[in-house]
Design a protein that fits this description.
CATH architecture of chain B: Orthogonal Bundle
Low-confidence stretches of chain B: none
CATH topology of the largest domain in chain A: MetI-like fold
Structural class of chain B: mainly alpha
CATH superfamily of chain B: MetI-like
Radius of gyration of chain B: 24 Å
Oligomer: heterodimer
CATH architecture of the largest domain in chain A: Orthogonal Bundle
Number of strands of chain B: 2
Number of domains of chain B: 1
Mean pLDDT of chain A: 87
Largest interface: A-B, 80 and 80 residues
Distance between the termini of chain B: 37 Å
Helix content of chain B: over 70%
Distance between the termini of chain A: 56 Å
Strand order of the largest sheet of chain B: 1-2
Low-confidence stretches of chain A: none
Structural class of chain A: mainly alpha
CATH superfamily of the largest domain in chain A: MetI-like
Shape of chain A: globular
Order of helices and strands of chain B: HEEHHHHHHHHHHHHH
């Protein structure tokens, strides 16, 4: 009886929740089609246009509003995210692999790694730049100090994902390989890695997206050359134009594309695993 | 006998080499930097320079200045409010997704819907609240069209309220996820049994559902706390510099090269964070629950 009242009520609540979650994005999308270059980032829409999108791709004549200085920053962010992704995933797989065996001090090491996602970015960024600036005396760059903080942030995520995967891992296949005299490295490469590959993909996706959008750590640790979030932050202090919203819509579409690639790779690896299992059945 | 010992030896050697890179990285780029903040907070700051002569000057300055202590209280107040609002907004949603939705596909779809906003850059998501809350913003336009208000509400933007609204929207999903996860693991037979014995929904909720979802609440609260306590972008963008959190102070201090003061604020933030997380972990033993 009660669930007949409570369930619909909750359903309505969830609908409102989704509205709350998406409201800003809807508004952002609407305003990105504001008339340019005179239309501001607010209502009402003077006239619908794709001006701000064309401006991002450099298709509009120069105007009062300067185009967003995002080109190089975007490339830097992508390179940084790729570097971070590779290093954190490798570290994550290695550490999680080590955690399959009990060892002394495992709790300490576990918390040391997980600490990376617990400490606010503003603190890691501050500490790293203090270290670089005042102790070692090196210049800060996005590919050195900022890179170090990015990995310290994303490695715990990769580690936890891999830990979850390896916890459910059936190690009898590895033991079979060892008992046939295959050395541990080849076993890992030929047996373990293909089996944990979906997990590795998830860890990579985590690390890449977290690094791409990472802001507080980068703010202090990246020095002169800006990454994308820093460039966006730079537009905060100056006047805001609808081009930033158009850019937001485009990056969201880019994320969708990235996630689709991830989905396709995932489906392919699942299908291949199934196919292999079937071949084994036939054999 | 000897051969098993050597195998074990070799395996623990492998374990060691697998762990060393991660341990070294986290020590160098996480533990040492935090230690650095503590160390530098005792350095001597002059107008444009800093030297390693130990002094308590910056600490004294922090605790005697209303701006700094005020920002500590603002941070704690905003953190508590956002913790409450994300919980209020998130729990019923989690309840629906984790417990009431029977079909696995629908609950997955709902969770994906919750995650999609994260594919937009964090800073742009914050910025999107401006045309939403402003005097001529979407909320005022809708409310006026509906005839609910005659005059636009002006307190929506560039106030503490706008910071709270923005943070609630950005962080509430971190509450929904863990709670929904814990709720979905509840054995439905327990609820059925309670119902058969004549318990009403309220009783079932308080005696069974809520206690069992508590670990999820704690995990969500830790996520939200970590992010809100270290915040400065949302408060900077939506409060018109009226709300200064500890994070904002750190950013301004670093901007004017006052490293010692930034470090003092950093240590204060670390201590607050440590107390908060330790407190949450005391409520629920996470290692046992997971």
């Amino acid at each position: 009886m009660e669930s007949r009242i409570i369930k619909p009520a909750l359903g309505v609540y969830v609908a409102l929740f989704v509205l709350f979650l998406y409201g800003p994005f809807v508004v952002l999308t609407i305003i990105s089609f504001q008339q340019g270059p005179d239309g501001g980032p607010q209502f009402p829409i003077i006239e619908w246009s794709t001006y701000w999108y064309r401006q991002i791709f450099g298709l509009t004549p120069p105007s009062r509003v300067a185009p967003l200085p995002f080109g190089e920053a975007l490339i830097r962010s992508l390179v940084l995210a790729l570097m971070t992704m590779v290093v954190s995933t490798v570290l994550g797989v290695m550490s999680a692999q080590a955690f399959r065996r009990n060892f002394k001090g495992s709790a300490v090491v576990f918390y040391l790694i997980v600490l990376g996602m617990m400490v606010p970015g503003v603190l890691t960024g501050l500490g790293t730049s203090l270290l670089a600036n005042n102790i070692i005396g090196i210049e800060r760059h996005w590919y050195t100090t900022a890179f170090a903080t990015h990995v310290a942030y994303t490695f715990p995520f990769a580690f936890l994902v891999m830990l979850a995967i390896l916890n459910r891992f059936d190690s009898s296949v590895e033991e079979a390989a060892w008992s046939l005299g295959v050395d541990p490295w080849t076993t890992f490469r030929k047996v373990t890695f293909p089996l944990i590959f979906p997990g590795v993909l998830s860890a990579m996706l985590f690390a890449f997206t977290l690094s791409l959008d990472e802001f507080p750590r980068t703010l202090f640790a990246s020095g002169r050359d800006q990454t994308l979030p820093l460039a966006i932050y730079g537009t905060f202090s100056v006047e805001i134009h609808p081009n930033i919203f158009a850019f937001g819509v485009l990056t969201t579409l880019f994320s969708f594309a990235l996630l689709s690639v991830y989905g396709i790779l995932m489906a392919m690896s699942v299908r291949r695993a199934k196919k292999m299992a079937m071949q084994e059945d036939i054999a | 006998m000897t051969s098993t010992v050597t195998i074990q030896d070799r395996q623990s050697k492998v374990t060691r080499w697998l762990l060393i890179p991660g341990i070294v990285w986290m020590s160098l780029f996480l533990v040492v930097p935090i230690a650095m903040i503590v160390y530098v907070s005792f350095w001597t700051q002059t107008t444009f320079n800093i030297s390693s002569d130990p002094t308590l000057a910056s600490w004294k300055q922090f605790f005697t200045s209303d701006t700094y202590t005020g920002s500590l209280w603002t941070t704690i107040r905003i953190w508590l409010i956002v913790l409450a609002t994300t919980f209020i907004v998130g729990y019923p949603t989690a309840l629906f997704v984790g417990l009431f939705v029977k079909s696995k596909t629908l609950s997955t779809v709902l969770l994906v819907i919750c995650v999609i906003p994260f594919w937009t850059s964090f800073l742009i998501r914050v910025l999107a609240w401006r045309p939403m809350l402003g005097k001529e913003g979407a909320i005022n336009i809708v409310l006026m069209k509906l005839g609910i208000i005659q005059q636009p509400i002006e307190v929506l933007l560039f106030t503490e309220l706008s910071v709270i609204i923005g943070m609630t929207q950005i962080y509430c999903v971190f509450m929904v996820g863990p709670i929904a996860f814990m709720l979905s693991r509840i054995d439905r037979n327990i609820i059925e049994a309670a119902r058969d014995l004549g318990a009403g929904f309220g009783r079932i909720f308080w005696k069974i559902i809520f206690p069992l979802s508590l670990p999820g609440v704690v995990v969500g609260a830790i996520f939200v706390s970590v992010m809100v306590l270290g915040e400065f972008a949302t408060s900077g963008a939506l409060s018109g510099r009226k709300v200064n959190l500890l994070g904002n102070i750190i950013v301004t201090q670093v901007g004017s090269l006052k490293w010692a003061m930034a470090s003092v604020v950093g240590v204060v933030l670390t201590v607050v964070m440590g107390i908060v997380i330790a407190g949450f972990l005391r409520i629920v033993d996470l290692k046992r629950e997971l």
